[in-house]
């Protein structure tokens, strides 16, 4: 079968956005190569695998591949004339591009390596990225310039480093899949207009946190687990990879729902996942694929960030299940605080 490639698709996109995506995709090729070489990756006897021995801005143990992936992204974006600055999971503050004063019209935000606790076990990991407009062209992008809700994204995507490396992109006109040819390092266009099934009998949640969940999530999961003996009157299956990219890609290909809800495990944190470079880009891709993405009490794309590394509850996937969960949050018997975030709430406006 003959496939066109990423360049052919980019040629039909807005040129400055295409330029940002081209550079992000180039970085993903390098990261993919390092992932696939496993323990033998690295040069001059310096392996890119294993722990750095330091804790990053998230309070998490940094892996060498986290650092290497971050460097690949930064190196690519520094060459990109349309990006004025970027922010990464691995760095506390944004980086200003040398191009900010001239041609930089966009900001990039990324998780250079998602699921990095899986690296040692050779389980799929990925890269997640988001492209936002630079609202003050010519000005140095400060942290404030990044504080835009996900609804403003002009593009988002992820690369999944699995048995095959896959790139999933959207510029607001549906979802495209590209598969990396490891011989030519070319991204081949393998699917277009991907839509997520509205119904599913598969859910993904870290069940070890069950005792910390909010009541609507307790109810939803216990009903799924009860299967054909419970109110759902059908059996459900469960998956948990612990790499959000892999979970999202499974949902893209066969439906499902992924939940990382607000919990009381660490009351200071309203969720595990980071809004700007995990939740927002995935929410954008979900909506582009006809699925839904909420916190439980509002659409994820409407959450206005307060800080770069802000965390947020995430419930995404097949629309029938996400709508059911929203219904459980609305149910007054579930006693949920609806004042969790600024902006539009699911309780005061109807959503298409
Ligand atoms: O299984 P856990 O520990 O609850 O966490 C899994 C979640 O944490 C993450 O791995 C966080 O990503 P990072 O590796 O980028 O920190 C998500 O991909 C995933 O959904
Ligand atoms: Mg991550
Ligand atoms: Mg990461």
Automatic annotation (TrEMBL):
The keyword Hydrolase applies. It catalyses: beta-D-fructose 1,6-bisphosphate + H2O = beta-D-fructose 6-phosphate + phosphate. Mg(2+) 1 binds at residues 89, 111, 113. Its main location: cytoplasm. Keywords: Carbohydrate metabolism, Cytoplasm, Hydrolase, Magnesium, Metal-binding. It is found in: Cytoplasm. Residues 20-191 form the Fructose-1-6-bisphosphatase class I N-terminal domain. Gene3D superfamilies: 3.40.190.80, Fructose-1,6-Bisphosphatase, subunit A, domain 1. Substrate binds at residues 114-117, 206. Pathway: Carbohydrate biosynthesis. Mg(2+) 2 binds at residues 111, 114, 278. GO terms for cellular component: cytosol. It is an enzyme of class 3 (hydrolase). Residues 197-328 form the Fructose-1-6-bisphosphatase class 1 C-terminal domain. One of its GO terms (biological process) is fructose 1,6-bisphosphate metabolic process. Its cofactor is Mg(2+). Binds 2 magnesium ions per subunit. The keyword Ion transport does not apply. Belongs to the FBPase class 1 family. HAMAP family: FBPase_class1. This is Fructose-1,6-bisphosphatase class 1. It comes from Leptothrix ochracea L12.
